């Protein structure tokens, strides 16, 4: 099993861990300390040693922050975690704030006394986030202190060690483009920006640029490290020596200097001493690195990670790999949906058993390398928690006459998958069916929209929400996120969300399409497929070429939850066409004994 189900935290973390943390703050002459969820690499899913936010608070979500003062503390999370943060953290110790409305900087500006010394770890905060804290410090007249030793690392007596998994090549048969060709492309971007070199600090960019993968991060095949990519296409890759083995230097070639990650500081000093112009991404680079470069004498220019957009625009090999991975994964999910619709209907199956069963179906493919995230296996009221993680503590049965939401994905060498299906256990209520159908209508609207070049995901977000908005409903998460190619299941710079985003959608980008609805304490609904932006083409009678989406996820959408009368003729045709494609593609791949059920599950309505 890739996934385990023991609780990773509990509400007692604050009572156990805040006293030694506050004692350490006093030793460092600090009145408060800012704790982001982030590690030193700005990963979404982070290694165990870096779970500092969870250690201090008990909150295990993948986004959020806390500020610990000597006399009070606050949790800052977004709408995805409104329920979870209150379940996992002790309200006797924390107040709660929506981070989209009040960020750490704004909270400190209102709550930090004049003259207070507020600490932060400059390896965990980017230049962009530190600048906000500095502005708040100036406004509220407190002192912002960059600590040399993170007080949590001192107070956390049994902190896990650093990951040391071997880094291995990612074959060009999966990557579709050589590292040499990628480095030349990025070198041109660095040169065009007027820089001598660019500091690359994001592990997904390292993995993509050098065609390597690792196992340092749970659910994402990432190697932790850093790199410098020069304007002539040569590069220095910084990895811990125990990760590299003997074959990696030869694989990387003569134009890549492989050095220990501990040498980064010296390399930055040398760049400064030579007066080099160094490009950094202010949203990704640790502020300590930027400060070190400045002190050493380097000229710094700000440049969005030059690997981010090329990484997001998949080449033909990666797209074909994604299609193949989704056929394999879709068959596994379909076998699981049959199990849900038969064995799991007795009201005795629990969430953990269901999650294990789904992982077992994926494992049977023989190609599964990992899950792409811990399976969200939410029965009844747990399905209303957007990023619910089942544990032995929270585990409940899939009771009759409730809904079960399962959001899951797999990591395969040829692609990363992410799919959500909602199914009834027993008989659904009329409200459940109405809400499901409205979510489906939004899903279809996004799946079928045409849009011109230059369109952002922000501009498309509302089409998926309109069927819910029409009756005064909504959901508090984005509608779509980028997805990597045997990389992170969440990837930028593209996204489909209410929040403004300037990145235009481009052919080859893979995103999710996942509107939902959540009734707190009762049920959750989400329908998620992955979609690929297709090249622009003429529209008959039109004046501009239009792009659209190709849906690559293949698995039945539950028809017992559909109120056919709420669908237009166009929507019914889309659903029937989708199920016809699911049926024709997977019929030879699914377990033979479920074919009768499969034909019924994908029938025309």
Question: Would you write up a description of this structure?
Answer:
This protein folds into three domains: 13-155, Creatinase/prolidase N-terminal domain (Creatine Amidinohydrolase, Chain A, domain 1); 168-306, Creatinase/prolidase N-terminal domain (Creatine Amidinohydrolase, Chain A, domain 1); 313-601, Creatine Amidinohydrolase. By secondary structure, the chain is an alpha+beta fold. It has a six-stranded mixed β-sheet, with helices on both faces. Helix 4 (104-111) runs parallel beside helix 5, helix 11 (264-273) runs parallel beside helix 12 (287-296) and helix 16 runs antiparallel to helix 17. A hairpin with a 2-residue loop joins strand 18 and strand 19.
How many strands, which pairing sense, and closed or not: the largest β-sheet? 6 strands, mixed
Secondary structure tally: strands: 27
Strand order of the largest sheet: 4-3-2-1-5-6
- Helical stretch count? 19
Strand residue percentage = 15-25%
Mean pLDDT: 96
CATH superfamily of the largest domain: Creatinase/methionine aminopeptidase superfamily
- Uncertain ranges: none
| CATH fold label of the largest domain | Creatine Amidinohydrolase
Structural class: alpha+beta
Distance between the terminal alpha carbons, to the nearest Å? 38 Å
Shape label = globular
The percent range for helix content is 25-40%
What is the CATH C level class of the largest domain, in words?
Alpha Beta
Please name the CATH architecture of the largest domain: Alpha-Beta Complex
Rg over C-alpha atoms, rounded to the nearest angstrom: 25 Å
Number of domains: 3
């Amino acid at each position: 099993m890739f996934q385990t189900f023991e609780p990773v935290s509990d509400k007692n973390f604050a009572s156990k861990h805040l006293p030694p943390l506050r004692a350490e703050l006093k030793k460092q002459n600090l009145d408060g300390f800012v704790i982001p969820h982030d590690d030193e690499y700005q990963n979404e899913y982070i290694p165990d040693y870096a779970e500092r936010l969870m250690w201090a608070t008990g909150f295990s979500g993948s986004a959020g922050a806390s500020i610990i003062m000597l006399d009070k503390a606050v949790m800052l999370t977004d709408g995805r975690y409104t329920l979870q943060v209150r379940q996992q953290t002790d309200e006797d110790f924390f107040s709660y704030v929506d981070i989209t409305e009040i960020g750490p900087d704004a909270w400190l500006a209102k709550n930090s006394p004049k003259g207070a010394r507020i600490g932060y770890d400059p390896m965990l905060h980017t230049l962009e986030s530190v600048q906000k804290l500095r502005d708040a410090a100036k406004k509220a007249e407190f002192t912002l202190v960059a600590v040399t030793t993170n007080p949590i690392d001192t107070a956390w007596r049994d902190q896990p060690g650093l990951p040391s998994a071997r880094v291995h090549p990612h074959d060009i048969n999966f990557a579709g483009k050589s590292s040499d060709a990628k480095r030349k492309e990025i070198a041109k971007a660095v040169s065009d920006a007027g820089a001598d070199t660019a500091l690359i600090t994001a592990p997904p960019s390292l993995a993509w640029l050098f065609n390597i993968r690792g196992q340092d991060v749970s659910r994402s095949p990432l190697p932790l490290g850093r790199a410098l990519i020069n304007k002539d296409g040569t590069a220095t890759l910084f990895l811990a020596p125990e990760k590299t083995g003997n074959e990696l230097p030869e694989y990387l070639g003569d134009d890549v200097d492989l050095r220990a990650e501990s040498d980064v500081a010296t390399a930055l000093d040398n760049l400064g001493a030579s007066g080099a112009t160094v490009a950094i991404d202010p949203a990704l680079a640790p502020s300590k690195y930027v400060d070190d470069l400045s002190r050493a004498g380097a000229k710094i220019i700000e440049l969005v990670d030059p690997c981010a957009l090329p990484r997001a625009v998949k080449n033909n090999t990666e797209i074909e790999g994604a299609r193949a991975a989704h056929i394999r994964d879709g068959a596994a999910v379909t076998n699981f949906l049959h199990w849900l619709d038969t064995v799991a209907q007795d009201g005795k199956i629990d969430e953990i058993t269901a999650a294990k069963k789904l992982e077992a179906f994926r494992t049977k493919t023989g190609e599964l390398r990992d899950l792409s995230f811990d399976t969200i296996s939410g029965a009844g009221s747990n399905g209303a928690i957007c990023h619910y993680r089942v544990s032995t503590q929270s585990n409940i049965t899939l009771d009759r006459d409730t809904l079960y939401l399962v959001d899951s994905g797999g990591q395969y060498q040829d692609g990363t998958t992410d799919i959500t299906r909602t199914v009834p256990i027993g008989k659904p209520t009329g409200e459940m069916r109405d809400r499901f159908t409205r979510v489906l209508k939004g899903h279809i609207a996004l799946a079928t929209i045409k849009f011109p070049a230059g369109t952002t995901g922000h501009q498309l977000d509302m089409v998926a929400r309109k069927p819910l908005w029409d009756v005064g409903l909504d959901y508090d998460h984005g509608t779509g996120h980028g997805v990597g190619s045997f990389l992170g299941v969440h990837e930028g710079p593209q996204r489909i969300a209410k929040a403004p985003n300037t990145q235009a959608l481009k052919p080859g980008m893979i995103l999710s399409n996942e509107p939902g609805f959540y009734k707190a304490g009762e049920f959750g609904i989400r329908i998620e497929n992955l979609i690929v932006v297709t090249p622009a083409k003429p529209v008959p009678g039109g004046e501009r070429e239009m792009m659209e989406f190709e849906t690559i996820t293949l698995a039945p959408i539950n028809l017992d939850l559909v109120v056919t009368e709420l669908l237009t003729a166009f929507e019914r045709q889309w659903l029937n066409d989708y199920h016809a494609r699911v049926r024709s593609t997977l019929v030879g791949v699914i377990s033979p004994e479920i074919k009768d059920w499969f034909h019924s599950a994908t029938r025309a309505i």
